[in-house]
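Page header: ASSEMBLY MODEL / two components / 641 residues total.
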Amino acid sequence: MSAAPAAASRVGVDAAGVRRVLARPAAPAVVFLAILVVIFGLSAPGFFTFENARGILASVAVLGVVAIGVNQVILAGDIDISVGSMLGLCAVAVGAVSTAVGGLILPLLAGMAVGAAVGAVNGSLTTFARIPSIIVTLGMLYALRGLTLVITGGDWVTGIPAPTRELGTGMLLGVEVPILLLLGVAAAVAAAGRFTAWGRDVHAVGGNRSAARFAGLDVTSVRLRAFVLTGALVGVAATILVGRVGSVTTDTGVGLELQVIAAVVIGGTSIAGGRGSTLAALIGTILIGVFLNGLVLLDVPPVWQNVVLGGLILLAVSTDAIRRRVLEG
Amino acid sequence: MVRSQSLSRELVLLGVLIALIVAMTVASSLFLTTGNLLNTSRFYVEPGLIALGMTLVIVTGGIDLSVGASLALVSVVMGFAYSEGVPLWLAVILGLLTGLLCGAFNGLFVTLLDLNPLVVTLGTFALFRGLAFVISDAGAVSQFPSWFEVFGQYYVGPVPLQLFVFIAAAIAVGVLLARGRFGRYVRAIGYNPRAARFSGVPVARTTVAVYALTGLLVAVAAIIYTSRVSSARADSGLGLELDVIAAVVLGGASIRGGSGTIVGTVLGVLIIAVLRNGLFMAGVPTTWQLIVIGVVLIAAVFVNEFFRKDEV
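Prediction written out in full:
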């Protein structure tokens, strides 16, 4: 599943090609996003600037990096709702290592290691112990938050040294580092999805687990890898967040799981597994960012944010259902 | 066959509950006192009521993440209707209607477009909470007439009134699920929706009814909650959905649909209540309670699911 624009260039005008492009998971979200950008560009002063676009992307980098991971888990037919608590635990790990030894690499690795370890636990309980992933990660949502509170004793981690904050506040080639990380992670995971056997197997495993097993795919390791990848990416996201905020609070990441699933689903990945793309997760994330930004610029009171987000999710899934009915006749 | 299986599962849960009560009694002499148990029950009637509806939803193979948000919406609609001059009895009826509509909205969305309930109720989770914030404009109503206290602060002798509401609701929903046609439809839909449809089960109507009933139970819980804390605010019931789902799943309902009982769910609610209150009475910090609940949840489902042979 690759970028829709790339597909558009080789399509020409034949109906089958148009149909193929429209059948891509992220197609409706791309259209939505284009319409939104035009509407906000015309109505919200200050929306159509390079600075504003960068601000939007930087503000959704944490959400996006996590969403790209969870997207793989959902593609493989599972779900991970523990990512918010996981982000909290990883942020504590990043903060602890950072205040102890400083630097950037060690705190980042610590965050990724903690995340990957938690992901491995999630994946093992789901695959080897055969507990449905929604239950495993619901339990972990509680347990990891409790663990974070026990470790920190409810205290904040403050005084994060400047080098560790590079990933959150740094600039490279005139662009914020979080943006480069978001796009880099998206490109890497999308490339892995297109050019490696594992990336293709994820769709098969999520589409029809029994068929994938009978076809000889190692279903267990495919599902396990998606969970571990998500954990490692949560570690990256935690490092970005700690950098941006400069401290770690014990409620870091509360409620993130719902935003993440919203981003993935709005982008066009099917919650039932098997259908979707990394581009979908990225577009869904950006859509949420653009919407929230546009509302602020249009002086819509912040109390309307959730109404809009909820409406957006319902609109996205309805469009997707109707589109599939039309396309599949 | 199925009957005896669920019976033995409930016996195991009962054994766990008794073991927990014994352990908590040993840990704190204040735990097993009528005063403590009755007082604690006030806090678990609300999740308990919602868990009854959630059991039906989960047995149909669905899930409802929006219950905490609808609780807030009902509470706010009721409170702000009253503060705008609507008589309180009418505001309470408006609240019940709001809950019913929230549930029916979920059910209709899920059935009409054949959408995944997880995503739909994630959407309404944000939508209902958002509407609650818009209506209340992030404010609160806390001036209620004294008779409103009857729903959440009234005692019949030593027993909180809402406990009777919960017992009555549990019996009613329990009978609905275990006996009669409706319960059979609910289980059939969860076990195999396509087979249910071909067998003449009114899948759409039953599903909408299940979500609407859950909404109604949420509304009752919201009225009790609002009365108990004497406040209607948009941030009520945050995270409630997770507690409720944990109790239902702990009670043995399969998240894959098709199986689950009200007796199991009531035991699940009791186990969580005993765990939380017992650990609290024993002086264990709240943070450890989160860890214990998470581990217990995973372990319970492991015991339930690992020995199933039919998993693909």
